[in-house]
Design a protein that fits this description.
289 residues; mainly alpha; two-stranded antiparallel sheet; 13 helices
Length: 289
């Protein structure tokens, strides 16, 4: 299982997050302050060091955490391609804000000196993304190693487990808070999944980010793909197979990155006249039967 076409095409928000995480981690690592950048109830509420709210989101506390975290952020770019950068921006903001608040509440409630400073990094976004990954990304292949059964999703779970336990309780709490934030988003609390940013704000990252590497333009039809949950199939989009041109390879690769079989993805694109949004609906509807 892969995250789709290589590079950050159709994923400017993810690209910005990965680049910022790398730069922040390297900068504060050189300064020798990376272990003190995590959220702290005392620093935020009593010392009013509000700058830590920003720094703690982007800066990992160690190089191994950066490696696993950047890999997971890069893989989860598939969700930005599915729902579009606008709605993904809402998902990112909701995950970061809610998980950060939950972490501060957990520190205040537990009153454990060992948890006075939690590990830093975008744990909220990463572990929030595991919720749609678990529910909405299907298993495409299974295999066995000795007596153990694995799927193509197992490696993502193992990378997440490594990151979750990287600093034991200091990283466990941010991870759990991220999962709770992702669950609240999936439950559509306060109708959060209906929200969108104004196009002027949503397009900022597309203009601000560096050009995509190894992919096509970010104006690809994949930006109009559906939300995490399946939407009703819209009518009047199916056409005779003979009337549709051969699907472009990028569209097939995008559907494969969502976990669908390549042949099924091609056939759905043919039926949908290469409309990737409609093709995704066809595939999701066929899985629900």
């Amino acid at each position: 299982m892969n995250g789709g076409p290589s590079g950050f095409n159709n994923a400017p928000i993810t690209r910005t997050f990965v680049v910022a995480s790398c730069l922040f981690t390297i900068f504060f690592g050189i300064k020798g302050r990376s272990t003190n950048l995590g959220l702290s109830y005392q620093d935020i509420w009593k010392k009013l060091q509000l700058w830590k709210l920003i720094v703690s989101v982007f800066s990992f506390s160690s190089t191994p955490e950066l490696m696993f975290g950047a890999y997971l952020l890069y893989y989860f770019r598939v969700f930005e391609r599915q729902i579009g950068s606008n709605k993904y921006s809402v998902f990112v903001l909701f995950s970061v804000v809610v998980s950060s608040l939950l972490q501060l509440f957990a520190q205040a409630f537990l009153s454990d000196p060992a948890l006075s400073v939690l590990t830093s990094g975008p744990y909220g976004l990463i572990f929030s993304s595991f919720v749609p990954f678990f529910f909405d990304i299907p298993v495409s292949t299974r295999f066995r190693v000795s007596s153990l059964s694995f799927s193509d999703k197992s490696f993502i779970y193992l990378a997440g487990l490594q990151l979750l336990l990287s600093s034991w309780r200091r990283s466990l709490i941010p991870g759990i808070c991220g999962i709770l934030a992702g669950s609240l988003y999936r439950l559509n609390v306060l109708h959060i999944r209906r929200l969108k940013f104004p196009e002027l704000i949503a397009s900022f990252f597309s203009r601000f980010s560096l050009p995509s590497i190894g992919g096509t333009s970010s104006t690809s039809p994949a930006r109009n793909a559906p939300s995490f949950a399946a939407r009703p199939v819209e009518g009047n989009y199916r056409a005779p197979v003979s009337a549709a041109p051969e699907p472009p390879e990028d569209s097939i690769a995008t559907l494969v990155s969502m976990g669908f079989d390549r042949n099924s993805a091609r056939q759905a694109l043919v039926h949908a006249r290469n409309d990737i949004n409609a093709a995704t609906n066809i595939l999701l509807e066929s899985q629900s039967h």
